[in-house]
Design goal:
424 residues; alpha/beta; Udp-n-acetylmuramoylalanyl-d-glutamate--2,6- Diaminopimelate Ligase, Chain: A, domain 1; UDP-N-acetylmuramoyl-L-alanine:D-glutamate ligase; Protein-Tyrosine Phosphatase, Chain A; 3 domains; seven-stranded parallel sheet; six-stranded mixed sheet; 22 strands; ATP binding
């Protein structure tokens, strides 16, 4: 069977599944392999559960015409998604960056969906499987597809760009994320900039934060760029009015009061505003979209519990995002402030240095009620309270000592610090 023939079947059965526990009637099941499983062994189960076809790559599992044999299931999924992307007339916007990708993607989506039929990456399905699944969710009437791309090593963004083939691209920022895989900060910049490399090579449009010195330098000689700035009138002007705790913005004499905390969300909003302007969404619709957006899934969520206002930012953490979260929390008005910070992962040889730097910064900012959780934070030199694990925290903390005030909870996904809500 050819890729084109598979795509014809997909158009008749436009739902893809990679997990037999989530089979929907009439879908196409792709029998992916992992370190501890072989999807081919679930092919018959998928058919029994309602899948119309299964894509396999081992001949011994081919039992009927519903079993479609290809040389490599993952490669077939990726190639099919690119074929489908090119079959569609939808414009594709890809974005990557160290911090803020998912929030920015959601903001872009709420703005552009005011005028266009859009699809966007679900959750953070932004890897070599998630990007193809997003592209395959493009419908016949989709006008714009917003595709988030994540990476933790070199050449990954280049590969995802070759799959998504974006018409437009945006990089949120370059920070200290996945240092172990990228090989340091310069490696992060090089790896994330692979999106720029693709766009420039293919003469596509780039959206940029013109106040980010790295972005500005990288795109200095490139002409197909659309940028925002707080003061450089070569670009679209968007003003930052404050964040105590919610970000307030002004553009074209319109004041926008968001439900996003922290100055670090200013540029995320700006990217969505800029794209709304470029795609001719009305000022009123852009304002309404930004103001109505509420973060979810442990990303800068505001939760009020008794006398505590909790900022739950426990989806992920790295030295860059941790620092800006602390800076924002420091300026927030509150009778008392409490920090619950969990380990930052994937820092490799820099882990000890970066955790100590955060602890030193906490002291510099003047915080006193600090709870550090995880093996890396436990190794730091500090008088702050330290706990080897979440279980250790839960067993030893006296939550009755937390009076009226604000709480910041932040850590890497593997720490799952949202569990702290159970006993606050």
């Amino acid at each position: 069977m050819t890729l084109e023939q598979l795509h014809t079947l997909f158009l008749k059965h436009p739902t893809v599944c990679t997990d037999t526990r989530k089979i929907t009637k009439g879908c196409i099941f792709f029998a992916l392999k992992g370190p501890k499983f072989n999807g081919n062994t679930f092919a018959d189960e998928a058919i029994k559960n309602g899948a119309e076809y299964v894509v396999i790559d081992e001949e011994k599992y081919k039992k009927s015409d519903k079993h479609l044999l290809f040389s490599d299931v993952l490669e077939t999924l990726q190639k099919l998604s690119t074929f489908h992307r090119n079959h569609s007339s939808a414009k594709v916007i890809s974005l990557t960056g160290s911090n803020g990708k998912t929030t920015t993607k959601e903001l872009i989506n709420v703005v552009l969906s005011k005028k266009y039929r859009t699809i966007a990456t679900q959750g953070n399905l932004n890897n070599h499987i998630g990007v193809p699944l997003t592209l395959l969710s493009i419908k016949p009437d989709t006008e714009i597809a917003i595709v988030e791309m994540g990476a933790n090593h070199q050449r990954e963004i280049a590969f995802l760009s070759s799959i998504a083939q974006p018409d437009f691209g945006y990089i949120t920022n370059f920070g200290k994320a996945h240092l172990e895989g990228f090989g340091g900060v310069e490696g992060v910049i090089k790896g994330k900039s692979e999106l720029y490399d693709y766009l420039i090579l293919n003469n596509k449009y780039v959206f940029l934060n013109a106040d980010d010195s790295i972005q500005k330098r990288k795109l200095e000689l490139y002409t197909k760029k659309i940028g925002f700035s707080i003061e450089d009138h070569q670009y679209y002007i968007i003003k930052f009015l404050g964040a105590n705790p919610f970000v307030i913005i002004e553009f074209e004499n319109e004041k926008v009061e968001t439900q996003l905390i922290g100055k670090y969300n200013f540029s995320n909003c700006c990217a969505a505003i800029l794209m709304g302007k470029y795609f001719n969404v009305s000022i009123e619709d852009i304002k309404n979209a930004i103001e109505s957006y509420r973060p979810q899934n442990n990303r800068s969520q505001i939760i009020d519990k008794k006398d505590l206002r909790i900022i739950l930012d426990a989806y992920n953490a790295n030295p860059s995002s941790m620092k800006v979260a602390l800076e924002n929390f420091e300026i927030v008005d509150a009778p008392k402030k409490y920090l619950f910070l969990g380990d930052m992962f994937e820092l490799g040889k820099d882990a000890e240095k970066e955790h100590q730097a955060i602890v030193d910064y906490i002291k510099e900012l003047g915080f006193t009620d600090v709870y550090l959780i995880g093996e890396n934070f436990s190794k730091t030199q500090t008088l702050f309270k330290k706990f080897n694990s979440f279980e250790d925290l839960k067993k030893n903390i006296n939550t009755t000592s937390l009076d009226r005030g604000n709480v910041l909870i932040k850590g890497s996904r593997g720490m799952a610090l949202e569990r702290i809500l159970e006993f606050l």
